[in-house]
Structure prediction request, 162 residues.
Amino acid sequence: MNMIKKSKTPRESEVIMREMVMPSDTNAHGTIFGGKVMSWIDIAAAMCAARHCNNPVVTVHIDDIEFRSPINIGSHVIIHASINYAGNTSMIIGVKVESENPITGVSRMTTKAYLTFVAIDEFGKPVAVPKVEPITEDDKRRFENAKARVKHGKELGAKLNK
Prediction:
């Protein structure tokens, strides 16, 4: 029987995914479509969330996606997904995307995003998830930032629903 842990570290569920930008992934400028990057972000984040909770997950919110620089055809794309925070049934996953030139090995950060997932059971109902156990200073910073993001989201939602 698979026992679900009460808490997990971000390292236990992190995902590093690599893709290559092909001609069919690009626009008329020879750079990748933003929607393609968004798709890869969602996939990597979903894998990370599922690894954290050992359940199926669904995307419920994508927050603060930022495209910092274009990614050229032929580039290697590295997508890093890490859990930042977990509530009762939801998880905030931070994703960082880098573009790597396969010839020179030079890489740069191109995109970042935060996604919220909810764990579900076989009937599509939300289920409890393990807490996040931040270990490193970076983990702790991400955890605190995600808590602030949750608080801000609730405050904004309350204001907008008046």
Remarks:
- Helices lie at 10-13, 34-53, 137-160.
- Residues 8-160 form a domain with the Thiol Ester Dehydrase; Chain A fold (CATH 3.10.129.10).
- The chain is about 30% helix and 35% strand.
- The beta strands are 7-8, 15-20, 57-67, 76-86, 90-100, 107-119, 131-132.
